[in-house]
Design goal:
The protein has three helices and ten strands. Helix 1 (15-47) runs antiparallel to helix 2 (59-87). The protein has helices at 15-47, 59-87, 216-230, and strands spanning 95-102, 105-110, 117-120, 142-145, 150-156, 161-165, 170-174, 180-184, 190-196, 208-214. The two termini are 36 Å apart. The strands form two sheets. A five-stranded mixed β-sheet has the order 3-2-1-5-8, with no helix packed on it. The chain has a five-stranded mixed β-sheet with strand order 4-10-9-6-7.
């Protein structure tokens, strides 16, 4: 999760987020080089005597400043398109999880398990345990298996919401009457926090998301326990 005075992105826990961070660094380096070149040219114009002020035709330099930006744009576009297609690639999922946005909480349904569904509300400040995070904790965490492709089906019951978990590189709009789909996977166990990222009303900032990734065998035990309890 994010930390105070953090300048970069959150640590990646999914392959997609690792690719996004690498692309961010790639684009940032190109921007840095362009900015340095422009600053150098401006400093030269301010500190040196101008010559050739009557030049009317310079085909070489015009070709350079036309072709070079096109090459730079291609260098940015190709990795971007690669990641875009990766985010839309759906392998055979191990699990399907449906997230439904409400004002102002989330509901989750495990489509592969019978009657396994629950609501996830924010934990009030006076109920927080030591070490828990204000405005980020929920009463029912969403438990998922690690190292597995998980298909997310995201929709809304009332207004526009957005289901976003930065460390997983996931941000998908929840739209009433429409079912959006995305894939996620975590390469390590742990707790990962997110929030609704679409202004959805007065309590928009009180819709946290908490994903708890655990090992396969522990997930099956957890799912079996919830099923027995619901009988």
């Amino acid at each position: 999760m994010a930390t105070p005075a953090q300048l970069g992105l959150q640590n990646a826990t999914s392959p997609i987020m690792e690719e996004l961070i690498a692309f961010h660094d790639h684009a940032l380096m190109i921007i840095f080089l362009i900015s340095s070149l422009v600053l150098y040219i401006i400093s030269l114009m301010l500190t040196t005597k101008l010559t050739h002020t009557s030049t009317m035709n310079a085909q070489e330099i015009e070709m350079i400043w036309t072709i070079l930006p096109a090459i730079i744009l291609i260098m940015i576009a190709l990795p971007s398109l690669r990641i875009l297609y990766m985010t839309d690639e759906f392998n055979k999922p191990y699990l399907t999880l449906k997230a439904i946005g409400h004002q102002w909480y989330w509901s989750y349904e495990y489509s592969d398990y019978e009657d396994l569904a629950f609501d996830s509300y924010i934990t009030p400040t006076y109920f927080l345990e030591p070490g828990e995070f204000r405005l980020l904790e929920v009463d029912n965490r969403t438990t998922l298996p690690m190292e597995a492709d998980i298909r997310m089906l995201i929709t809304s019951q009332d207004v526009l919401h957005s289901w976003a978990v930065p460390s997983l590189g996931v941000k998908t709009d929840a739209i009433p009457g429409r079912l959006n789909q995305t894939m996620l996977a975590s390469m390590r166990p742990g707790l990962f926090y997110g929030q609704c990222s679409e202004i959805c009303g007065s309590n928009h900032s009180f819709m946290p998301i908490v994903l708890e990734f655990i090992y396969f065998q522990d997930f099956e035990v957890w799912a079996s326990y919830l099923y027995i309890v619901s009988l």
